[in-house]
Amino acid sequence: MNGLTSPPSPFELTMKQYAVKPGYRFPFGATYSPLGTNFSVWGWEATSVELLLYEHADSPAPFQVIVLDPEINRTYYAWHVFVERLPSGTFYGWRMDGPGDTRATGFRFDKMKVLLDPRATTVSDTVWNRTAASEPGDNSTCSLRGIVTGDTSYDWEADEPLNHSLEQAIIYELHVGGLTRHPSSGVMYPGTFAGLIEKIPYLKDLGVTDVQLMPVMAFDVQDLPQAAAVRNLTNYWGYSPHSFFSPHPGYCIAPDQGTHRRQFRAMVKALHHAGIGVILDVVLNHTAENGANGPIINFKGLANAGFYHLDRNDRSVYRDYTGCGNTVNCNNPVVTNFLLDCLEYWVREMHVDGFRFDLASVLVRGEDGKPMIHPPTPWGIEFSTVLGNSIIIAEAWDAGGLYQVGDFPGFRWSEWNGAYRDTIRRFLRGDKGLVSTVATRVSGSSDLYQAQGRLPTNSINFITCHDGFTLSDLVSYNRKHNELNGQENRDGTDANYSWNCGVEGATNNPSILALRERQARNAMAILLLSQGVPMVLAGDELLRTQLGNNNCYCQDNELSWVDWTLTEKNRAMLRFVTQMIAFRKRHPSLMRKHFLSGRKTGSGEFADVSWHGLRLHQPLWDDPEAQLLVYTLAGRNQGEEDLHVIFNMSENAFTLPLPNLSRKRWHRAIDTVELSPADILEPINQPCIEDVQYRVAPRTVVVLESR
User: Active-site residue among 395, 517, 679, 705?
Assistant: First the structure.
C-alpha cells in the first residue's frame, strides 16, 4: 500500500477481494481516499453487520460481502470498516440484524434487507424496487445503493453563499424537473440541474432574487398510493426523502456515474454568478419508509426505535403527525445532531443560501410527540454559526393539528404566512368586510410578528404555491378537479378560496377571459406591493394551468410542467409580472425592515402610511360591506416617490379623492384595468394626473407615484 499514487480502475473489482482494516467511526458515510474508503454507519443495538460491495448500479449480486466484527468494527453506536484501495465508483449497501419483538423494543432489524447508508452523498435508484423492500425476503438485487465518490474537491471559483438581504428578496418557487421537462423548454438536458442552468437568463430577466427548489434531496419516486400507482403515476413533487445528503439522481445526467454533487454544485455556482440565491425545500419531518407496512430502506432497519416517533405502549405503531405514515423524532439527541449536520453540509459543501422546512411544526415535537417550549432542533438551527446567514423558512404547521404561524420558536425564522394567502384570496374573489385584515396582511402581518420583536421579513407572503391551484386556476375554478390522481377527487384541499369569474374552467368568452387576466394581475400586484417577502410560483407569470388539479404531487407530465410556449401566448402577463418586480425593487418603501407606524418621519409630506376609504383619512375598517382599501405610502429615501395605492375588489367603480401634493404631481404607474402595456408603466411613460381625484374601475388595483 505504501507508494500507491492512484486507485485501481473499476474493472479490477471483479478480479480481487479487497483487504480491510477496522476503520473509524467518524466521519459517517463513505469517505474516499486513494488509500481506500472508510465506511461508518449507525447501528443502535445491532448484533451483526455486513457491508455489501457492488461493481455496477445494476449488479445482481455483491462482489464482496464484508462481515464486521463487533470487537474491532464497533465504537459506541457506530459500525465502521476501512476497505483498502477500493476505487471510486463502487456501489454499496449494508445489512444488519438485531433484537426482535418490535412491539417491545421498537427495532425493525431484518437481516435480509439491504440498507442504504443514511449519510451517503451520492445514491443510485437504478434497480430500486419498493415492493421488494416492503415484503419479506432478500432484496439485494433491487436495493437503493450508495456510491463511493472521489469528488473530494471542487473548483468553486471563489463562490460563496450570497447572504443577501431578506427584505429585498423575491422568491421564485420551482420544481427542478418540471421547469424544463416540457418539450418546449429547448434545453439540452431536460429535467435536470443542468437544464435549470440553461434557464438562468430567463430568471434573471424576470428579476427574482432567489429560487426555492422543491425537494432535491434523493427521494423515492415509487412512493405513492396504490390508486395512483396503477395509473403509472410517480411521486413527482419529491416529498418522500430517503437520503438527506444526496442530490436526487433523477435530476442528474447519467446518475450512475456518481457525479451528483458536481452537477448540483455547478447549478448553484451558475445561479450565484447571476446573483440568484438557492433555497432548498427540505423534508426533515418524515421519510419514504412510511408506516409499519412500508419499505425498509435505511432508518427503519438501522435505528427505528430512535429515529421515528413510536407509540409508547406498542412500539410497532408509528405516531403519524405528517400524514405520510411516520414522523421523524427530530429532538432525539442523535437525530438532532444528524439533521443539523445535514443542513450545515448543504451550506458548507454545496453553498446553498437557505432552507424552507416542510411541515416544520414536527421539528417542535418532543420525543413524547408533544410540542416543546424550547425544542433543541429549531433553536439549534437558529444558533448554528454555519447557518448563521442562511435563510430559514418554516411551514409552521403539521398534519397532526399543530399550527404555529406567528408563533414558531425562534426569532429569525421566517414563516409561510398561510393567513396572508387565505385573506388575499378571499379579498380577490370579492369577500366583503376584510379591509382591516387585508391592511394588516399587506403591512407585514404585525399582528403575528411585531409583539415578539420580529420583523416584516418573518412573513413569507404568497397567494399560490406548489400545493394548491396555480394562479391561472385560482381565477378559473371554484372547486378542485383532481380525478386524474386516481383518488376520486378526495385528495387535495377544498379550502381554495377561489373564483372562476363566471364559468368553471376553460372558456372562449372574451369578457370572462379578460376578467381572469385582470384578476391575475391584481393578485400579482397586491403580492408585490406587500411588506414582507413575496414568493411567486413558477409559471404563474405565464398563467400556467393544471386544469383545476390542486394536488399534482403525482403528475410528472405536461399537467405539471412549465409550458414555455406560454412566454409568447401570455407575454402580456409575463411583462406585467416582470415590470411589477422591477417596480418593487425601485421602491424601498415596499421593502421595509421594520413595521409601519402611521407616523411622519423625516422631511416627507406624509406619514409612513396613511389609510383612506371613499374619503381621505377615513378607512372602511368597520364596514361589513367594504371591498375597497386605499392608502398612501411615503418614500423611505430622499428622492423616492410616495405611492398612492388603491385596491378595489368590488363590482363598483369609484371616483376617489387624491392626497394633496404641495410641490409634486401624481402620475399613474399601475392600473390593472388597462391592457398591456398601459397596465404598468415605467416612470418615463407615466401620465400625469391633472385632476384631484381618480376614477377606479371595478376589480382593479391602481398605484400612483408622486413626482
Answer: 395
